[in-house]
Amino acid sequence: MIGVEPGRLDDQQLMKELETIHRTRHSTLLHGSNDALHAHNERMAQLEGEYLRRHPRRVITSGRTRSGAREREPQGE
Question: Which InterPro entries does the entry link to (predicted)?
Answer without folding.
Answer: DUF6158
